[in-house]
Amino acid sequence: MGNETRRSSATSRRMILASAAVALASSCARSLAAPADRTINIIRAELTPYQFGARGDGSDDTAAFGRAVLEAARLERPLMIPRGDFVLTPPAASSWQFRNIPERTTHICVPLVSGLTVVGRGGRIMTRAPATPLGPLARIFLFGTGLNLSPGALRDILFDEVEFDFADEFSPIHSFTFAFGLTGVDNFEQRNLKLHSSGKRAGRGLFLLNGRDRRQIGCRHKNMIQGHYVHYEWGPIIRDVSFEHLTECMDWDGPAWKVDAKGLRFKNLVHEAQCIDSAGGSDWVISDVTAENTGSVFFLYHKLEAYPTFAEWFQSPEGSFTNRCVPMERILVRNVRGRAAGRDYALKAAETFRVGPNRFKKYPKEIVGVAPPKDITIEDVEIDGGFAAGVNECRNLQMRRVRLRNMDAHDDAERGAALYLHQATTTAQTLRESELSGVVSDVEITNSRGMGLLVDTPSDLTLRNLRIDGYNLNDGAHTRKGLEIRGLGRKSGLVELADVHVGGGAGAGLTDISVRGAAGVVRERLRMRGSVTGDTAGAQPLDLSEEGSAE
């Protein structure tokens, strides 16, 4: 009997050690797969919210979570989230005011501390409304920080495999409820998170101000309002992140620098349906993007509120503009695949993508003195069934290997094309300060419902290896040209056409290639090399004509 007991004990010990080894290997594998420096120590005894009074049954577990977070960080041990529904309730008291606006209070359920690791093991983080209703502009952070105007006030916070469910199971969800609300935090990591609502569409992911070196790996967002809302960020690395049935996904509403994002998937978005939205910054690389049934895939522009520093912006009155705003510079977007991309239900300004100093068609007077985007590269893009894509101003645009098929467009003389490139020409001053230069090459536009390509007021611009096969399929009044270049001579510089073919136009009164410019300068400023042809039956193949006078 004693031998059997000893054999049983030895077997149990081997099973425990084997289980621990498997768990450690799994944790290490996840760490090696992600570009992160930290690993999770799961060998030491686990801490869970249950040890601090949590019930996990839909009761209010806010206080227990607060105690658990402090103790886990103090002991440098991970806080594990086992099975259960852990409900966090925001306090009535505000922690700080967003941009000092009294109505924009912030309410933190669980304050975060440096050195914290939280690991999901089957439990859900949920929320309910407080007993005293909060104002409609309040911000609720399930996990958050106080206001830190300087970066690096907190650091090294990791959430791994945690599930956030914004379902209205316990009460309606406030429209500005975020999983995380951070200011001045370095090295915040989100790994393999599941953020969603199993009820009505609700909840937002990350609210971040003044952060550095964020990591987001393998996270899934579904049936929510917003993925992230970020102002002033340096060095984020984002990998393998998906968004489904959201209104806004990746919203950089303020400047960001050294953004590295790869493996982004967007599907079945609603209302504004934005995938990637920017507001200034430099040195971005965005790659391997898929978008299906969405609004704009990317906006690369800067906002007039994008002050040079975070402190200036945060302390300035809302709506105040500066002509020192941070521009977009040195941006690379590559390997984008889109299907039915470019709808914008809320704003009715449908565009698959746009580059420029301002997001909208009209330029406000305050845009004067603002530098255009610079050194923007867009390559290896395929869109099928999208809406018009455009660049309204750029210095040294590099666009290559772009395929646009079955693109829709308004019957609009300014933007009624599958692809339009034009400058701000609302005033003489904006015209002097604007620029549209660079090289657009290896572009195929097939079956455009409007024009194929529209170029307005170029500077030095080369169009090379351009093929348009099918245009004006909607038979519009303002879209009867396959390739139109207008405003030649308003700015200095040359326009070069090299190996261009246009054909397949539909309707009457068509012109395959039209180049118009100031009196006496069209032939002086236009260079044609190789084959430049139009072959739509009954259409004028090439029209070189004058318009107005040079400015």
From TrEMBL:
Region (Disordered): 532-551
Signal peptide region: 1-33
Gene3D superfamilies linked: Single-stranded right-handed beta-helix, Pectin lyase-like (2.160.20.10)
Coiled-coil stretches: none
Lineage: superkingdom: Bacteria
SUPFAM superfamilies: Pectin lyase-like (SSF51126)
UniProt xrefs under InterPro entries: Pectin_lyas_fold, Pectin_lyase_fold/virulence
Protein's name in the database: Pectate lyase superfamily protein domain-containing protein
Species per Swiss-Prot/TrEMBL record: Methylosinus trichosporium (strain ATCC 35070 / NCIMB 11131 / UNIQEM 75 / OB3b)
